[in-house]
Write a structure and sequence with these properties.
Blueprint lengths: L3 E3 L9 E7 L7 H11 L4 E6 L1 H4 L8 E5 L2 E6 L4 E6 L5 E8 L5 H14 L4 E10 L9 E4 L5 H7 L13 H10 L4 E9 L8 H15 L6 H19 L2 H16 L14 H16 L35 H4 L8
Parallel strand pairs: 2-7, 2-8, 8-10
Antiparallel strand pairs: 1-3, 3-6, 4-5, 6-7, 9-10
Helix pairs in contact: 1-6, 3-5, 6-7, 7-9
């Protein structure tokens, strides 16, 4: 039984395949924001779907029930699909979207490469984002990965120097399989400031779209991402300006990153972002919730008005490890 079903028989003109699947690290929702903006930019058509009965654990990824006045009107099931659209110049591009599989990764990879061959894909580009010790005051930089067959692509986009071992998302085996099949492949990863990695950070999405354009020649309108990015940066700037301690932390990151041009993961020890991340989240929530225009921290949380850092993030709220794994050898999920 095939894992993939085609929904259109028309031929595509050597599209680029963009892979942005949910479930693996996506700091600042960088990849999600990038693919969302590109999908929203124009009409797309369904090209293929994958058999989620074989690939997904529906206890972990449950369908959504639509209930109206007590009547169950149906379910929306999670799907893994390939959609086709066009860029600003009319060139075709496909998007592989949906949750990454829970099961049968090797079979899924083989089916995806087979579909890419059928569609005559000219290049595959994976999108992702990881938390890094970088300040929000500097442009978001990208790091690339690629199979040996496409090492020229990764070098052209910039790489993390040195040798590291990290757990892999589905893009890891996909890029290797694309390389073995003779399809150029490169993964683009946005380096998101670790103190904003838990919330949407549109500058990361804009950087990923720009990187995709550079490596593939596609063209997309990123004006909405740029506008959202400007707003996000102003909000972060406003928070930082309220605390000299936080301003010092950002200056320390700026100094470290500027001294380590070309090797941002070898910048030594940097301050933890726990406190600044908690206050940033509190600030943004107050902006959404405050009807009286009060943006102070006091009373933003119901009942007890507690503005301490405790409880701001699930479990322990520790973001100190994020982006610093090369220094301590940590290969947990936060690192990539």
């Amino acid at each position: 039984m095939s894992l993939v079903e085609r929904h259109t028989g028309r031929s595509l003109d050597h599209p680029v395949l963009v892979v942005a699947m949910e479930g693996w690290v996506d700091a600042g929702f960088g990849a999600a924001g990038a693919v969302g903006a590109m999908l929203a930019a124009g009409q797309t058509e369904l090209v293929a779907t994958f058999d989620t009965e074989e690939l997904l654990d529906h206890r972990a990824r449950r369908p959504v029930a639509h209930i109206d006045n007590g009547i169950n009107e149906g379910l929306s099931w999670p799907s893994i699909e390939v959609r086709a659209g066009r860029d600003l110049l009319g060139r075709e591009v496909c998007f592989l979207i949906g949750p990454e599989p829970d099961f049968h990764w090797r079979s899924f990879v083989a089916a995806t490469v087979g579909l890419a061959r059928d569609l005559e894909v000219r290049m595959a580009v994976g999108l992702g984002a990881f938390p890094a010790p970088a300040p929000h005051t500097r442009p978001v930089r990208l790091a690339a990965t690629a199979p040996a067959e496409s090492s020229d692509l990764s070098r052209s986009m910039g790489v993390i120097k040195g040798e590291i071992e990290v757990p892999s998302g589905i893009w890891g085996p996909l890029e290797l399989a694309f390389g073995a099949a003779g399809i150029p492949a490169v993964g683009l990863w946005a380096r998101v400031p670790h103190y904003v990695s838990a919330m949407a950070f549109p500058p990361a999405s804009a950087a990923l779209v720009a990187g995709l354009s550079d490596v593939s020649g596609l063209a997309f309108d990123v004006s909405t991402l740029s506008t959202a990015g400007d707003t996000a940066l102003r909000q972060v700037d406003d928070l930082i300006s309220r605390s000299e301690e936080h301003a010092d932390m950002v200056r320390s990151l700026e100094h470290s990153i500027d001294e380590a041009e070309g090797n941002t993961l070898d910048i030594g020890q940097v301050p933890t972002g726990d406190e600044i991340a908690a206050e940033l989240e509190r600030y943004l929530r107050s902006q959404r919730a405050g009807d009286d225009g009060d943006t102070s921290d006091e009373g933003e949380y119901p009942d007890d008005g507690d503005t301490s850092d405790e409880g701001e993030y699930p479990d322990d709220g520790d973001t100190s490890d994020e982006g610093e794994y090369p220094d301590d050898g940590d290969t947990s999920d936060e690192g990539w």
